[in-house]
Amino acid sequence: MKKLFVLLTVVMAICAMSCFSYADDEASDILVMYFSRTGEQYTVGVIDKGNTAIVAEMIAEQTGADLFEVLPVDDHYPMTYNALTDVAKQEQNAKARPEYDKEEQPDFSQYETIFIGAPVWWGDWPMIMYTVFENNDFTGKKLIPFSTHEGSGLSGFDRKLQNACPDAEVLTGLAIRGNDCQNRQDSVKQSVEDWLSGLGFQNAQ
Ligand SMILES: Cc1cc2nc3c(=O)[nH]c(=O)nc-3n(C[C@H](O)[C@H](O)[C@H](O)COP(=O)(O)O)c2cc1C
Question: Would you put residue 127 in left (φ > 0), alpha (ψ -120 to 50) or beta?
Fold first, then answer.
């Protein structure tokens, strides 16, 4: 009887362990994809973590999502603010499609929902994001835009994303002040939490 009890306990323990490890290994069907710059940024001086990166990490933490940072192949973006605005303006005027690094790009087909974030650059998505939108198939996916900015809000990110990816469903976006990302993270976290719960996401923390 005692042996049977020990055996049962061992079997139950193995089952419990395998259940937990299954939960740990379970792949997320949510991705947070973002573009963000360090260096000198408007109103915040030189930063070592980009404003949009901070919001992206909060979303990933609260939803249990995977993260993918869109990085330029050949990083031609200056680290000083004025020079960066010049390069960004030239790219926008030229409707450039700067190349991004696909080496770390996950297989988008495994994700049902993709949060997509970037700084507002001259009232629009940075041109590199259009390269991503136009070079991949987002058919049937839920795409959720978010921006960081210094006054322009979401700048039509949602409408422009829907135009670039007409076969995706674009949901309500979020706009956060870049300065708040550096200096008022508790309130940013709260805004992210409220937005996510409005979209129907449970807090995964
Ligand atoms: C090239 C460039 C253009 C910008 N254009 C705008 C703009 O049109 N409207 C706005 O509100 N903020 C604008 N900003 C401010 C950024 O959107 C803001 O600082 C953002 O939080 C930077 O995010 P990041 O650190 O993730 O790159 C601009 C900044 C840069 C560098």
Answer: alpha
In a domain, 158, yes or no: yes
What local confidence, expressed as pLDDT, does residue 22 receive? 47
Q: Which domain holds residue 182?
A: 29-198
Best mutation site among 32, 122, 127, 150 for ligand 1, i.e. most ligand atoms within 8 A of its Cβ? 150
pLDDT in tens, 89-106: 999 999 999 999 999 999
Could you count the other beta carbons within 10 Å of the beta carbon of residue 113? 19
150 Cα–ligand 1 center, Å: 6
Domain count within the chain? 1
Q: The domain that contains 173 carries what CATH number? A: 3.40.50.360
Structural domain contains residue 14: no
Per-residue pLDDT tens over the stretch 152-190: 999 999 999 999 999 999 999 999 999 999 999 999 999
Residue 111 domain-assigned?
yes
Q: E strand or H helix at 68, and its extent?
A: strand 66-69
